[in-house]
Write a structure and sequence with these properties.
It is built from 20 helices and six strands. Strands 1-3-4-5-2-6 form a six-stranded mixed sheet, with helices on both faces. The chain is elongated, with a radius of gyration of 32 Å. It starts with a strand and ends with a helix.
């Protein structure tokens, strides 16, 4: 289903009633009144230059819920003086898109170039997105798509290449405070909130202007007394769950933040991102698996206890469940973040894997092969093998690489934690190897 909005009439007359949601009633009529997106609308930004020329190119508006994507699309159409055809990808199919194109073609005959706004454009499948290409390419429509998903993953490359991506930010505290003041001016009175409760109301919005106005609408009919404090506000309003999609970018962004905070030895930041993921409903088992990976990848032998601790934390969660088991994950996160760091094991494994692919057909040297049969003994299996426990300092210095393959060094211990002692020992053994074998 599509709606046609002309720049002379940005909303159907039938929708002008007071029964509309507050967020809809307070939509600004001018770009200057749009809050929180000053960066995207800077005069020297791509969008700012388009507006100065009064000529829009096709756009993808990418931003979190409630940041003003739909409002911006309507205001852009009004600013350049072109009609807006609005669709929702959730509610529209092929028939609705075709009808929108028919409307656009009729407008084009009259010298108008319609702006086709598709909300939640990432909901269109690949075929539906491909179906937009021809009309965008030949100028039948100027496309404005709105999405909360990363366009690099959510949109097909052919469509993305024809659009400029405008990144919209979550609304900061200043922008949300302006919205709150507008809402109170609309109702003609201040909400009966203490300063702390007013601050908490803005925090609860979590960057979402629509959600803030929905909460204000809930509170608008309260009597002037008593004034609500933070606790009283909590009784009236349910806590909002953070915006988080366990299958999409939010999931990967937060686990990346957790992993890099651990790698960067920042226990406080690591604990914050852990709690962000748990609060959003992430599976603690997934977090436990990632902690095990961090222990091997970023700490390794600099702290040999890191990996057993990570495994123990995962097992503790399995036994205790939530919320008790989450404390074990927190303890592990703090330990890993505070531990000395080394990626020497990670680097060594990668280098050894490459060498194994390059030299994958070489046999082990004969002297380290077992010889359970006479034939194998006759072939030299096990000949001249030196039993290391019988050698001075329990080290023979023999080569264990394949014959004909130069000795390679994969593992280079750092000077961090326990690896400092490992490095010292390996340097001593390397000197003995050169002394006893005459090799490298």
């Amino acid at each position: 289903m599509s709606d046609l909005f002309d720049e002379q009439e940005t909303e159907p007359a039938a929708s002008a009633g007071a029964d509309r949601p507050l967020a809809d009633r307070l939509r600004p009529d001018r770009l200057a009144d749009l809050v929180g997106q000053e960066e995207a609308l800077r005069p020297d930004s791509p969008l700012g230059r388009m507006l100065a020329a009064k000529r829009l190119g096709s756009l993808i508006l990418w931003g979190p819920p409630g940041c003003g994507k739909t409002t911006l699309a309507r205001l852009l159409a009004k600013e350049v003086g072109e009609p807006l055809i609005a669709l929702s990808a959730v509610m529209s199919g092929v028939a609705e898109v075709r009808k929108a194109f028919e409307q656009a073609r009729k407008l084009r005959v009259g010298g108008r170039r319609a702006i086709l706004f598709i909300d939640e454009i990432h909901r269109f499948n690949r075929a539906q997105q491909d179906g937009l290409l021809h009309e965008v390419e030949d100028g039948t429509v100027t496309l404005i798509g709105a999405t909360t998903e990363n366009p690099s993953f959510a949109l097909v490359a052919a469509l993305l290449s024809r659009c400029h991506v405008v990144v919209l930010e979550r609304l900061d505290e200043a922008a949300l405070t302006k919205l709150l003041a507008r809402a109170e001016a609309h109702f003609g009175h201040l909400l009966p909130l203490t300063d702390a409760a007013r601050q908490r109301l803005v925090e609860l919005a979590d960057g979402d202007g629509r959600y803030l106005l929905n909460m204000v609408e809930t509170l608008a009919d309260l009597p002037n007394a008593p004034t609500l404090d933070v606790e009283g506000l909590a009784v009236l309003l349910q806590r909002r769950l953070p915006v988080y999609d366990k299958a999409q970018e939010g999931h990967y962004n937060l686990i990346s933040a957790l992993h890099k905070s651990v790698r960067g030895s920042d226990p406080d930041a690591a604990l914050y991102w852990l709690c962000r993921m748990l609060e959003a409903g992430e599976d603690p088992r997934y977090i436990a698996r990632r902690l095990i990976r961090m222990a091997s990848e970023d700490i390794g032998l600099a702290d040999p206890q890191a990996l057993p601790l990570a495994i123990a934390a995962a097992e503790s969660y399995e036994r205790l469940g939530s919320p008790e088991g989450e404390l074990a994950l927190a303890q592990c996160t703090l330990h890993l973040a505070a531990a000395p760091k080394s990626n020497a094991t990670y680097v060594a494994f990668g280098a050894a894997a490459r060498a194994a692919r390059e030299h994958g057909s070489l046999m082990p040297p004969a002297h380290i092969l077992n010889a359970p049969t006479k034939l194998m003994k006759a072939l030299g299996y096990g000949k001249d093998y030196a039993y290391d426990h019988d050698a001075p300092e329990r080290f023979s210095g023999q080569s264990y690489f394949p014959d004909g393959m130069a000795r390679l060094r994969f593992y280079a211990p750092t000077g961090e934690g326990a690896e400092a002692r490992i490095r010292e020992r390996l340097e001593k053994l390397a000197a003995l190897r050169r002394e006893r074998s005459g090799g490298d």
